[in-house]
Here is the input.
Amino acid sequence: MVSQPAPGDTPWNLPWPLPDRRDLRDRLLSAYATDRGYHDTRHLAEVLARLSELGEEGNTEVVLAAWFHDAVYDGEPGAEERSAELAEAELAGVADDTLDVAEVARLVRLTERHDPAPGDRNGEALCDADLAILAAPADRYREYAAGVRQEYAAYSDADFRSGRLGVLEDLAARHPLFRTSYAREHWEPRARANLAQEIAELRARSTGPS
Here is the structure.
């Protein structure tokens, strides 16, 4: 089971690797602070906390990719691509030739499918951190599922159930679900239990009285 961010974590003390670009940090925080549902500032904080748990808190490209990965989130296809393009544009002016902007953008794009190539350490860490919500305690998992439903409020219950089942069944069919050894050991059992429960509930609603 994943641990939760520290109670004192506020948006302005989340780890930010570019001390000279706090203006950029604040714009990104504003993007996450909108009434999105699940993909909000809390989600950003949780992903950053999971990266720290994976020992990647000092990996500038991975941490920046976490900040940018849902900077554009509107429920429409291609949001990850638009987030990656935003990263490329915003980081192009960073006066630090040690920052690999192309790597940040590549990592953001990976969060569309969460399917990094074997041995892609950066990709494995970011994708595992993003999917770690699947291993959350039961109450947080319920909040997450409700937040996702809120994001797709324009869809009927039947259409949402169909789409959500497709996503969850795809995840449940992955072996392993997580790519890092730490996540497989510490997060995978709980994540599979949460997935199985939500899938069963959605299937029951699909076959029950309308």
About this structure: DSSP finds ten helices and no strands in the chain. Residues 11-207 form a domain with the Hypothetical protein af1432 fold (CATH 1.10.3210.10).
